[in-house]
């Protein structure tokens, strides 16, 4: 399985146009501390809890995308992504349990403002825009996490020995996971060609960059939990 190309095609254009917002996201202090194994546990707990709630809405967004696509192969690709998220939730719960967080505890947590801002933005794009706009709103998470995970895996500064977050990092080298990311990138390229992406780059770039900034805010939410706990 080859590594997805993050610097080519429509995705590469949108990623480049996001400029400093993209670097703020993929090299966020939360990410760097994950790699170093120095991220405070309360920050990771907060992230894990909100990520569970986030994934529920993310699944809804993929379900909405299925209804907007025109061909059966495209619908199959989006459905596979939806199923992957739904199937991931029990695994996420199991992983949370290893950190002392029960599913009941997670499910009853209120959504953070950052979670609501991000997920409702993506869903709003999905309800008001077409399949291409919704895909663009989804991609900073879909492909961005792969880029972050692969960078951590191959960065000499990353510490895996005795790093409590090593298993989280290693997940992003999984062949099936990377294949699913490549499938999403291919879907973006196909839908972009069908829907005149080149003539819509200004709007698409705004959507992509906004979602990227909301991703950064999601990382920061985890770090803010440490500050809040110290007060």
UniProtKB/TrEMBL annotation:
Species, as recorded: Paramixta manurensis
GO biological process: thiamine biosynthetic process; thiamine diphosphate biosynthetic process
Protein task: Catalyzes an amino-pyrimidine hydrolysis reaction at the C5' of the pyrimidine moiety of thiamine compounds, a reaction that is part of a thiamine salvage pathway.
UniProt enzyme class: hydrolase
Single GO MF annotation: thiaminase activity
One matching Pfam family: TENA_THI-4
Enzyme Commission (EC) number: 3.5.99.2
Signal peptide as annotated in the record: none
Source taxon at top rank: Bacteria
Residue span, Thiaminase-2/PQQC domain: 16-224
Catalytic activity annotation: 4-amino-5-aminomethyl-2-methylpyrimidine + H2O = 4-amino-5-hydroxymethyl-2-methylpyrimidine + NH4(+); thiamine + H2O = 5-(2-hydroxyethyl)-4-methylthiazole + 4-amino-5-hydroxymethyl-2-methylpyrimidine + H(+)
UniProt cross-references to InterPro entries, sorted A to Z: Haem_Oase-like_multi-hlx, Thiaminase-2/PQQC, Thiaminase_II, Thiamine_Salvage_TenA
Name the record gives this protein: Aminopyrimidine aminohydrolase
Family (UniProt): Belongs to the TenA family.
Gene3D superfamilies, alphabetized: Heme oxygenase-like (1.20.910.10)
Pathway noted in the entry: Cofactor biosynthesis; thiamine diphosphate biosynthesis
Keyword annotations of the record: Hydrolase, Thiamine biosynthesis
GO cellular component terms, semicolon-separated: cytosol
């Amino acid at each position: 399985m080859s590594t997805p190309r993050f610097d080519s095609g429509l995705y590469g254009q949108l990623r480049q146009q996001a400029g400093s917002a993209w670097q703020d996201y993929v090299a966020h202090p939360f990410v760097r501390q994950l790699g170093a194994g120095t991220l405070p546990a309360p920050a990771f707990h907060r992230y894990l809890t909100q990520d569970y709630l986030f994934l529920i809405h993310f699944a809804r967004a993929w379900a909405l995308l299925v209804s907007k696509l025109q061909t059966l192969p495209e619908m199959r690709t989006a459905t596979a992504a939806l199923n992957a998220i739904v199937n991931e939730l029990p695994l996420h719960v199991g992983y949370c349990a290893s950190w002392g967080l029960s599913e009941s505890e997670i499910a009853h947590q209120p959504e953070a403002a950052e979670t609501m801002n991000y997920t409702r933005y993506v869903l709003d794009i999905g309800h008001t825009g077409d399949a291409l706009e919704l895909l663009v709103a989804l991609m900073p998470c879909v492909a961005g996490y792969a880029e972050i995970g692969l960078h951590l895996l191959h960065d000499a500064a990353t510490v895996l020995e005795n790093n409590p977050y090593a298993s989280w990092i290693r997940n992003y080298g999984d062949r099936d996971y990377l294949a699913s990311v490549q499938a999403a990138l291919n879907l973006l390229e196909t839908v972009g060609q069908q829907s005149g992406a080149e003539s819509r780059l200004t709007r698409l770039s705004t959507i992509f960059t906004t979602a990227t900034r909301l991703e950064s805010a999601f990382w920061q939410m985890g770090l803010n939990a440490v500050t809040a706990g110290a007060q």
